[in-house]
């Protein structure tokens, strides 16, 4: 068990929703637009980051009948283990401060990054189907989200590196020649956090690759992973490189090398030779199968040591019965609590007897199983 006693207040189309009695499998069933994905998005905010839609906080606040008087929203859940309740997690936005996310752990104010210390949370949504065709930055965000679920400290390294990178780029793009001493100070920050960021990504890829290597090629395509560094990964070398590349970066108006240029390369095992077929060249179905394999392998790793939660939006309907059964069996083996959405119960017949089921309609939730 991971999350229970979940409440959504004025979150998107949910004015006041409560979900009690959660189980290992949890199904949200309803028509398109009913608010199923909104529940998953609310749960995704119990992890560091911007949630599964990467939306601005103001966009999540309820509208119409779901709107709060102050224009804010709140999400909370009890974090439970096999030994009982372990704590309460909550996040909110106040209408008068629409860009500030508030977080509480056991009733005390906390940082969003600290949520990762309590819960390992991941998700797979239809919007991610084009991950292998998307930009390198999208794959870096994906990689960092997976890394945070295994090592919460990774989020701090990413935040510090991005902040220092923005400041260096601001100085490089300015009209006046940057102060060398100030640049050196910023570059030292970039190198320290950047080396940790690169090491975390490399560690994740190695760990995931080892977990994937245990899996058969069927019924899900097995991905091969390779991280291509965008610059030096050693702190001392990164400092030297940043200093040496100032003239070139100044001409470009931005930093051209570093962890912000890392690339995750994915290929399909058993196709296209020893190195596999690049994922971008695989069929849509093969890409989806590799995403599912990655998600399941990561969930197995993430659920070790901390409660794990996996959010799967409209996944089962796109699989044939054989692959659905295989997915449910692997989900059982991960040890994570699973939340799934669908428009009907038929695709979930294999787990209907063991799942908690809620019917979702127009932002209202009713327990039906």
Automatic annotation (TrEMBL):
ATP binds at residues 30-37. GO terms for cellular component: cytoplasm. GO terms for biological process: DNA replication; DNA synthesis involved in DNA repair; double-strand break repair; SOS response. Keywords: ATP-binding, Cytoplasm, DNA damage, DNA repair, DNA replication, DNA-binding, Nucleotide-binding, SOS response. Gene3D superfamilies: P-loop containing nucleotide triphosphate hydrolases, RecF/RecN/SMC, N-terminal domain. Residues 3-341 form the RecF/RecN/SMC N-terminal domain. It comes from the Bacteria. PROSITE patterns: RECF_1. It is found in: Cytoplasm. Transmembrane segments: none annotated. InterPro entries: DNA-binding_RecF (IPR001238), DNA-binding_RecF_CS (IPR018078), P-loop_NTPase (IPR027417), RecF/RecN/SMC_N (IPR003395), RecF_2 (IPR042174). One of its GO terms (molecular function) is ATP binding. Its main location: cytoplasm. It holds the Pfam family SMC_N. The RecF protein is involved in DNA metabolism; it is required for DNA replication and normal SOS inducibility. RecF binds preferentially to single-stranded, linear DNA. It also seems to bind ATP. Belongs to the RecF family. NCBIfam families: recf. This is DNA replication and repair protein RecF. The gene is recF.
């Amino acid at each position: 068990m991971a999350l229970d006693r979940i409440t959504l207040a004025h979150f998107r189309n949910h004015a006041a929703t409560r979900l009690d009695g959660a189980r290992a499998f949890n199904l949200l069933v309803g028509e398109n637009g009913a608010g199923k994905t909104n529940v998953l998005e609310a749960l995704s905010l119990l992890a560091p980051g911007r949630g599964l839609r990467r939306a601005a906080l103001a966009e999540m606040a309820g509208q119409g009948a779901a709107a709060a008087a102050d224009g804010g929203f709140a999400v909370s859940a009890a974090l439970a283990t096999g030994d009982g309740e372990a704590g309460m997690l909550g996040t909110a936005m106040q209408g008068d401060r629409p860009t500030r996310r508030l977080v509480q752990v056991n009733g005390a104010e906390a940082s969003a990054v600290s949520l990762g210390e309590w819960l390992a949370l991941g998700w797979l949504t239809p919007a991610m189907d084009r991950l292998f065709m998307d930009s390198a930055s999208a794959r870096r965000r994906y990689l960092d989200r997976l890394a945070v679920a295994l090592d919460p400290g990774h989020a701090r390294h990413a935040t510090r590196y991005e902040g220092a990178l923005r400041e260096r780029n601001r100085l490089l793009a300015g009209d006046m020649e940057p102060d060398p001493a100030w640049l050196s100070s910023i570059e030292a920050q970039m190198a320290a956090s950047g080396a940790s960021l690169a090491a975390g990504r490399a560690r994740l890829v190695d760990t995931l690759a080892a977990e994937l290597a245990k899996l058969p090629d069927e019924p899900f395509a097995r991905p091969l992973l390779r991280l291509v560094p965008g610059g030096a990964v050693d702190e001392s070398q990164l400092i030297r490189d940043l200093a040496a590349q100032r003239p070139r970066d100044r001409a470009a108006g931005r930093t051209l090398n570093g962890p912000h240029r890392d690339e995750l390369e994915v290929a399909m095992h058993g196709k296209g030779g020893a190195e596999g077929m690049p994922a971008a060249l695989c069929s849509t179905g093969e890409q989806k199968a590799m995403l599912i394999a990655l998600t399941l392998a990561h969930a197995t790793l993430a659920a070790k040591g901390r409660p794990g939660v996996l959010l799967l939006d409209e996944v089962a309907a796109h699989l044939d019965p054989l692959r659905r059964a295989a997915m449910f069996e692997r989900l059982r083996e991960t040890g994570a609590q699973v939340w799934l959405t669908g428009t009907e119960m038929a695709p979930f017949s294999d787990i209907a007897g063991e799942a908690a089921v809620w019917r979702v309609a127009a932002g209202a939730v009713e327990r039906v199983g």
